[in-house]
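Can't attach files on this board, so I'm pasting raw text. These are the components:
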Amino acid sequence: MADEVILLDSWPSAFGMRARIALREKGVEFDMREEDLSNKSPLLLKMNPVHKKIPVLIHNGKPVCESLVIVQYIDETWGPESPLLPSDPYERAQARFWADYMDKKMDSAGRSALWLTGEAQEVAKKEYIEFLKVLEGELGDKAYFGGERFGYADVSLIPLYAWFYVFETLGNYSIVEECPKVVAWASRCMQRESVAKSLPDQYKIYDYFLAVMKKRRAQ
Amino acid sequence: MGEELKLLGVWGSPFSRRVEIALKIKGVEYEYSEEDLFHNKSALLLEYNPVHKKIPVLVHNGKPIAESLVILEYIDETWKDSPLLPQDPYERAIARFWAKFLDEKCVPAVWKSCMSVGPEREKAQEEALEFLSTLEGELKGKKFFGGETVGFVDIVANFVGHWTGVLQEMAGVDILTEDKFPVLCKWAEEFQNCPVIKENLPPRDKLLAFFKAQRETITNFYKNKV
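---
Top answer:
Structure tokens for the assembled complex are below.
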């Protein structure tokens, strides 16, 4: 019996991108359904009643919510020969730590830098580049956050890249100058088909951001 | 080769106590080191958790792990007896979902309901009631979130099981009450009476006195953290 895999998603979402990459890394066929977040589908509301958010992975009718929970579920369900999380418990803990770090930072600095105004936004913009600098330090001379192999931490972090142009323009800084290793790592990740297929173009994201800003101002 | 296991924690912190509960369930010996968070974080803490500078930090053979949920999974994967998470990938996903819900939604809402002032407090109270109601729905029919025995989600819910009662008494608010949340209150009672949990909860009266005395210090300290 074939697996039925549906991903409720929204193309600009960094969290949705994580799920897309993980599924593609494992070679899982899936039906990606674009949600209109201003008009959420009955399926989304039924499958994620608690948060009503994307991404939601629906595997043979059963929903999994929260992007990092989804990525771990994908890792544990498919492709045991190509694991995303390393096998060593300590390395797994490190991978989880960095994925969680991005979640915490995007929830605070990321959101505020994008959607707030005035002093709060200025502070957030600085926090965002500081966050990237911490990643720069952690990456060091490693090819990937996990070391030699592309893995869970990279899957979790690489969607940041799609939003770099937006943050650079807002913050008036050059990410490649401030964090050259992170940018090199991002380019390395983009060589992978799973990543290239899952991340929208930075300028498309920027246009999307402008459109949302325009809509918000009109309201 | 001896195993060296050290926990940097704070006696009154639910996050720190989660780790202790997990280690006790696994029957693992460890050395505990109390941190003075408000006045004097140890050099060791700053070295072991430079990113967040927070407790708990578990140090295993000199290697540090931070963030309580990350630590819990590490403990579960390193000491395989008495598993905390279920084996089935879907059930594990459900457990991880509720752990996140507790940490990202319930804890901040309850905390702000008790520690904040003005409109922020009112909003937090509305949210806290909503989130606890969701939890109550998830628990219905089960003795523990983990089923018949305490599991991953129950450990993470220790804040609801013990700290909430203390905080709401200190603040003079009614959030987790039997008439509103009979299932959750029953669970809290079962949770607190579990032998391994009982031994690892800070005494209620001490915790209450601590929060009362430190209210202002804590509010300022946690203003940007929760």
